[in-house]
Amino acid sequence: MSLVTVQITQYIIDNTELPVSTYDPFDGAHGSLGYWIMYFYQCVAMSMACFFNISFDSLCCSLFIFVRCQLDILALRLQSIGHNCNGVEESVEEVEHQLKNCIRLHMKIVELAADIEAVLYLPMSIQIMFSVLVLTSGFYAISLLSDEKLIFLKFFIYQSCMLTQVFVLCYFPGEVAQRSLKLSHDLYKSNWVNWQRSNRRLLLMLMQRLDIPIRIRTLDASLGFDLALFTSELTASFYKYQVWYLKLLGVWSLQDYATRQQRVWHALRCGLIFVIVSIMLLFFAIHVLANIDQISVILEVFFMFATELSCMTKLLSIKLKSANHARILTLMHSTAFQPISSREYQIYMRGAARSVKWRNIYAFTSLLAASLILVTQWFVDSSALPLSMYEPCNLARDSCYYGFYLYQVLSLMPSCWLNISFDSVCGSLLFFLETQVAMLSARLQSLGAAKTPPDNVGVAMELRDCCLYYGNIVKLKEMVVNLIRVPGSVQMLCSVLVLVSNFYALSIRTSETAFMIMLGSYQFVMLMQIFIICYAADEMSGQSALLSHALYSSEWTTWNRTNRKMCLLMMLRLSKPLEVHTLDHTQSFNSLTFASIVNCSYSYFALLKRVNS
Asked: Is 146 within 8 Å of 152 (Cβ atoms)?
């Protein structure tokens, strides 16, 4: 169905375009021979790839189902050990014989699972990796094309197909692991209490072995193919690429199983980025001190000096508490934060799509602003550098000029990517919290009526689970606040300095169009840098403020007195919204804070402009 939709939808919407956007060697218009050759080629290629995917995925599922069936057979044999023996001597020998046969069968199943894993783990792992890329781009496309019904339908069906593909590759290996975990319980159901001591020893050894599940592992040996991996791929979309870059810089902690060589390279990369940012700060500081009596020069330096200062704060904050921050990701992947209903899963998907959308917008605007800063100066005045800082050599020499120009490019771009990674991961974590609060709200609203005592017991258990869920959300929120508080507060202070200096520069160089475009784009990025964290925190606080109303919307009037008391206690606790505080505990990250920063920056600019005039 997905294949047919992809091939036909494009022809219905715009028959001048091919179903798949690829290089067209014929560059033929609609109706030409080249067009139909490419159309036929794409249809045949997609059909062959589709049938190959169907064959491979179904073969994988069939093999895992076969292993699961063998485990079911082994479970029946384990349960029946010793039930059909009459005499004592016959019983001892028969039980020993049955136990040894079960041990041999279990060993054969383990060997079969290992052989299947050796053949399939690589293509399945690559499939999961590319599925994340497809799902991410698909969610982003769906968020942009929701008004175009046919295109939306095409992406929606293809997205569903990709989710199904990943689901079946994770579900059936997970079934194998779960069934293998229950084998020890099946063995416990046998008639072992009447066995001789030697057979009970054999049983104990077998039970210890059965406690280790049969897992089909991925390329990362710490992960197995199961439903936890399926939901973790969606969870990873909140932070995956940002944390990868922070690990590349050497400031985010590595896994516990990292080798010594990996840790050495990790430390070297960390030292390199610290040296780069430190040298830039030193050159900016020397230039400020050398021109301390010239306000225009100081403001020209401060527009980038404050940005690098916030980068250094982020580096130090992440590196000093990297182990604590790494636990955030572990907690996010725990079962406590996974959706348990279709409604919650839809909320989860929307949260992931929004997080990806904001990350991409912020990354695009930041890279555009950084590129304009580095390129505009070349066209405006090729004898000056893009960034105003201390110049250790004479720029009149070409070697000095081009060398220092290259240094500024190589120094500014890692800082730009660092800002993108840190700011977007902070926003994504806050969006993740907002998503969890929305899922809790859905659970509270779905609490049903209780007309019988068993119904009240069920409601009590659901209320208890919601209390534990809210406690986990608060725990995760505190860990996220610990990540954001210090660098976010310093970022606000530095943003005020940058905004003031940019406002001043824009007011005195209004006739320079290229400079206005460059500085205007950078000003927009600085505003977005603060807005992302403030907006995401505000969304989380607003959603948490609605929790008490969500609980009130349940069928609480039919509950017994004990459940209504628990409901009242929960409403009292939920009446206080979750907030992300700055270093000043009386101030939180929210839309009012963002507005006050902009207002404060403009007030300082107006005062500076008046004093200078």
From this structure: yes
- Biggest CA–CA distance in the chain, Å, is 111
Q: Helix, strand, or coil here: 581?
A: strand
Identify whether the C-beta of residue 159 lies closer than 8 Å to the C-beta of residue 135. Answer: yes
Would you list the domain boundaries of the chain?
2-234, 240-612
CB 430 within 8 Å of CB 536: yes
- 581 forms bridges with which residues in the sheet? 588
Q: Is 156 exposed, middle or buried (0-12, 13-18, 19+ CB in 10 A)?
A: middle
Angle formed at CA 239 by CA 238 and CA 241, multiple of 5 degrees:
125
Which amino acid belongs to residue 349? M
Tell me the C-alpha distance between 65 and 402, whole Å. 63
Indicate the DSSP class of residue 228: H
Query: Could you tell me which residues come within 8 angstroms of residue 556 by beta carbon, excluding any fewer than 6 positions away?
Result: 447, 563, 564, 567
DSSP 8-class letter at 239: T
**DSSP E strand stretches across 241-337:** none
In the numeric block, which tokens belong to residue 365? 């605007």
Instruction: For 198-240, write each residue's pLDDT tens digit.
Output: 777 777 887 777 777 777 766 555 555 555 555 555 666 676 6
The CA distance from 67 to 75, in Å, is 12
